[in-house]
Fold this sequence. Notes:
This protein is of the alpha+beta class.
Amino acid sequence: MNVICDDKQFLAQYDLDVNLFYRFNVKPYDIYPLRSIFVVSTDKGNKVLKKISYSKEELLFIYDGIKYINNKFNRTMNFSKTFDGKIYTVLNDDIYCMIDLVEGRESDYNNPIDLGIATKGLAELHLAGEGFKGTLSSRYNSGKLINNFKRRLNEVKVFKTVASINEHKSDFDDMFLNKVDYYIEEIKKSIKLLENSSYYKLCGEENKVVFCHHDLAHHNIIIKGEEAYFIDFDYAIVDLRVHDLCNFITKAIKNYAFDIEKGKSILKEYSNINPLDKRELAVLYAMLTFPEDFYSIVKDYYTRRKDWTEETFVDKMKKKISAEEFRIDFLRGFEDVL
């Protein structure tokens, strides 16, 4: 419910001046909201109107990455150009772009056929993204993960201090303090695994570093016929392909009791198209070991990144903690593929 509210608040910031559509050389017939974008029926087909919440430089990085991929893999997003040939326009200091709507249905990770199609598509996407570097250092993440995890570890320790000194502890504070030491050790374990792996060597091998989607939620992979199409590259980065694979596996399994067989199926399907070596699997295991869900909810709470109620935060924390035994069982099962 809160996600819907967040989307409504974001959509309310759109300026739907008719001149905005004319700048993209389209005549709008109908428009309706979908999550944080608007779908527009126009004289040139169905389009997505998107207000960008990041910089022009980041948008151009994403555009360059998609263009690079499209030389070998054309199942991504197509940007509409403005009358002056740009992929964006600025209206009242806000950046807008328009994208061709990919007609199809959202993938269902609980459907093994969809999951197989999505996995195959991801392997092909990564093959097409090999060698892309871009010119934006803030989106170049290769080689930064160990320091990133160390920074997150320090953040969790700061949150622990904040919760500890709070005289009027909330239910969330109590739950967090009860589990934080355990998760601190899990983060340390993940860092140690990365430090003892071939992480830095892999970051120096061009075919291991690719243009990564970095937000592989089921609704960002559209099934059309028997193929996967990838949309919404807002969080795209350049990094090891196993970074993206970690993101994908986590999205696919965490709502299904961390099913290890599903995880192994993804690895097998992916490797049939784009083989992984043992060093990459070890780094992937280290990435999966990091308790991402716990870290995210804790950071959301103590930095107020989400405008959620206390009840919502507590409910989400309970679910994440209750799923921990399944996550640990998954990691034990994953050791079989190392």
